[in-house]
Amino acid sequence: MPIAKQLSSMELCDADGAACRLGAFWGERPVVLVFVRQFG
Amino acid sequence: MFCREQVAQLRDAQHEIRERGAELVIVGNGAPHFARAFREDFALDGPLLVDPELRAYRSAGLRRGRVEIFSPRVAWNGLRAIRSGARQQAVQGDPWQLGGVFVIRPDGKLTFAHRSREAGDHAPVADVLAALAPDAPPVEETVAAPRAQVWLGRALGALVDPFIVNSFDRTGFRIHALRFDPNDLDVDLGGRRCLVTGANSGIGFETARALADLGAEVVLLCRNRERGEEAVARIRAETGNARVSLEVLDVSKLADVRAVGARLAASRVDVLVHNAGVLPDARTETDDGLETTFATHVVGPFLLTKLLRKRLEESPDGRVIWVSSGGMYTRALNLTDPNWKKRAYDGVVAYAETKRAQVVLSELWARELAGTSVVVNAMHPGWADTPAVASSLPLFHRITKAILRTPAEGADTVVWLAASPKARETGRFWFDREARRTHFVPFTRNSEREARDLWKLCEKRARSGGKTPDARRRKVAR
Prior knowledge:
The complex is a heterodimer of chains A (40) and B (478). With 40 residues, chain A is an alpha+beta fold. Chain A has one domain (1-40). Chain A has helices at 3-8, 22-25, and strands at residues 11-14, 19-21, 31-35. Chain A is globular. The radius of gyration of chain B is 26 Å and the shape is elongated. In chain B, the strands form three sheets. Chain B has an eight-stranded mixed β-sheet, sandwiched between helices. Chain B has a two-stranded parallel ribbon with strand order 1-2. In chain B, strands 3-4 form a two-stranded antiparallel sheet. Classes of the chains: A alpha+beta (40), B alpha/beta (478).
């Protein structure tokens, strides 16, 4: 399954704790989606 | 240190990313307060998300392990990072997780993918920017669940499944999801028409959204016009699929079911999801003289299926899905007093009995439609945090809130049953994409005769209900 489709419906929290659906970020424009190792 | 080095590089390129009409979205795996500190350190003004359970990391196929952190290359990368000014801070997140970078276009195509092989193996910024060019070719990329992960999912599932809490809750979903094949939903539902009842919130909404995301035409069948229209607008905006519409329908009102059913049957129907549900505190009765839960969960959906049967049979891949509940495990089919006229009303029992009836009806419809293209299945979503649970079972919701599944997790098996080419068995009861038993205790079993009596009862109620008083009088006169 394409990664974008797999990630699309996934909900993560932002830094303020609000839920965000990942797919919404690339609904209208391209995104550079960066996964960092950790926040250290 | 490495993540700081990488984010510093990408932040410096942020204006070039934005010049190309794109946005930088950063995901980390620690807690939100780590993210807030990180945002301040780097003065980030774009989206910064957290994935403490590493679900997105796993879905993206990112590596995790000790060898990847302690290899000789990592030492070399460390020197490079120090020279660039990055300094090691306290570990804030999973120390063994590796990162990656993806460029995703609005059509969902990937034009760049980089998964770190070891700590400090970053995506070259120039390559990321090149992937944002309008003519950048898509990268063909799929992720299959590693075999070890599938086995782990099966082994852990076998351990937790006997314990209801750890199976029905979010932990259960995440354990079961380890064995899901991500390719199961790599489907294009373009040309298919899917109907979902109770679709303005919770599991129904997530089902409708996911089916629209897969390209289907989706009709939301909702009681409340305003909430239904809001849901349609949201799904259209989030999926970019304009073929999402609303029909106002209260499935407990058989006259409405007849009218809307006739309209819906004017064009093709490929998928019918019976999701609408109620759990009233006190006994209420519909205009047809039926107890509301019985009408909403059993008679209304039965009549709607009957009205759409021909259209479903015309579909090359027709599917009917009954969204039942794990609560049905506690009750047997009750045909002696389905309308609660002889008993003191108990909403939770009424709910469980009608959810049991849905499972039996699903099996009966599967038999009725055997030999056609239509498969009929029931499922239960586990314990999901939906507005319906919060309002109908406030105490349960308060106690279990921290462990409830998300509505999307609750809807996962509905979507799988509606869309996956693998979900072509019929007459089964599913939970987390796996066929399950329908009884745990002997007293909930029903006889073949009781099942037939349920069918006859539904036939009778569906035949008489929703007719105008004139039509009923004519029938009596005959």
